[in-house]
Amino acid sequence: MNERDSEAVTGILFDKGYQAAASTEEADLILYNTCSIRDHAEQKVFGRMGAFRKLKEKKPELVIGIMGCMAQEHGENFFKMNPEIDLVCGTGNLSQIGDLVEEIQRGRAGARHAVPIQKLAIDRIDDDYGLDGIQYRADKLKALVTIMKGCDHRCTYCIVPYTRGVEISRSSESILREMKDLASRGFQDVMLLGQNVNSYGKGLDENMDFAGLLEKIQAVAPQIPRIRFITSHPKDAHTRLFAVMRDLPSVCEHLHLPVQSGSNAVLRRMKREHTREWYLEQIEEYKRFLPQGSLSTDFIVGFPGETEKDFADTLDLMEKVEFDSAYIFTYSERPGTPATKLKDDVTEQEKSRRLQEAMKLQRAISLRKNQALIGTSQEVLFESKTRRDENRYGGRTRTYKRVVVSSAQDLVGQMRQVKIVAAADETLLGELTS
Ligand code: SAH
Ligand code: SF4
């Protein structure tokens, strides 16, 4: 989502005649997009401030802006903490960022702007930062398309509802227009974005749900061979979605379904609104519909009150589901979230032990699943040259597995059949067969 926001803002600035600078030293304007999801992400941003201050000392006319979730969360406090900042622009106000930057550069609006949090829900999502008019895309092959913003869930650990606001769906007409445009420009892989795509359509005047949207996309943009989506909430992922994933040729056979924990007690305290048993039932259903489909998830370990038994339940769920991959995080307390009231009784040391143990188990499962693909033929869309070797190209299967092959010919942008010959936990090695 942040990548999409950065791309949109870049498009706005290019439209105003700005050009990309070769380095931060040469830049007249630096906009720093930020994430608040974990403390670690925030510390990285604060860590960069010293470098920004030095740049500004050398070049006083340099304009520095903070955008995204940290801007939304900290607002004007940023100016107090970091006087070198000129602009703070919240997540709901990105469409104005070009005008704000121009005003600052012309010195019209005084030295600074803060964009307050109450504007969060005001940006009309159909404008998607005015993107109907802005054609800029960072990539030629893959595109990100926002279908909804915000989140109506209230998971107790999570800051997203406070930094991104309530759920707003974009009208299907506007999404389909963008999809047709992407199809005509030759995009091959489109990722539909939302915090909870399965509740797409809520609050719209039209009678449309997420599965219905996928059907419409398939109908209007059949030239796009790969459609993906993130993220689904387990509570709202259902049979109709799995049926559409099975039946529509362009919708990829990969589901990212964050579970967070395998323990019912922890899920309850997280307010995830589903149980371990419900989750496992959905997974069974998914596997019935898409036996060749892949699965990924997110876990939080060391949530307040997580016992050794709760953690063992998480490892057990990991084994039962056999995810192809998982993002595993230690719990990070976020200011203002309901979980701050829970007693965080898991020590940092214990959290990191659990993280290591869960990661180790997941690596073994990923390796096992990847090894099972040795000898199979996979359709791979090649995205880039690998960094290490000029004659090696990296791409993805429909199931989002990374595949590397050697080739004397440039493969970027091509869709080829590949025979898998070796496997590691994160990458498959293959040979071209077509
Ligand atoms: N809307 C998505 C999640 C977005 S946040 C969903 O519900 O699936 C992405 C992931 O970050 C979450 O799934 C969770 O695993 C992790 N996360 C969110 N808040 C966190 C916190 N306070 N500490 C640690 N991990 C967190
Ligand atoms: Fe956060 Fe939960 Fe909403 Fe995901 S569903 S964004 S974890 S509150």
User: Strand-residue fraction?
Assistant: 15-25%
Number of domains: 3
Rg, alpha carbons: 23 Å
- Per CATH, the architecture of the largest domain is Alpha-Beta Horseshoe
What this model shows, in words?
The protein is an alpha/beta fold. The chain folds into three domains: about 1-110, Methylthiotransferase, N-terminal domain (Rossmann fold, 3-Layer(aba) Sandwich), CATH 3.40.50.12160; about 140-370, tm_1862 like domain (pyruvate-formate lyase- activating enzyme), CATH 3.80.30; about 375-430, Nucleic acid-binding proteins (OB fold (Dihydrolipoamide Acetyltransferase, E2P)). It has 13 helices and 17 strands. It has helices at about 1-15, 40-60, 70-75, 75-80, 95-105, 160-165, 170-185, 210-220, 240-245, 265-270, 275-290, 310-320, 350-370; strands at about 30-35, 65-70, 85-90, 115, 140-145, 150, 170, 190-195, 225-230, 255, 295-300, 325-330, 375-385, 390-395, 400-405, 415-425, 425-430. Strands 13-14-15-17-16 form a five-stranded mixed barrel. Strands 1-2-3-4 form a four-stranded parallel β-sheet, with helices on both faces. Strands 5-8-9 form a three-stranded parallel β-sheet, with helices on one face. The two termini are about 35 Å apart. Bound molecules: S-adenosyl-L-homocysteine and iron/sulfur cluster. Iron/sulfur cluster binds near residues 153 and 155.
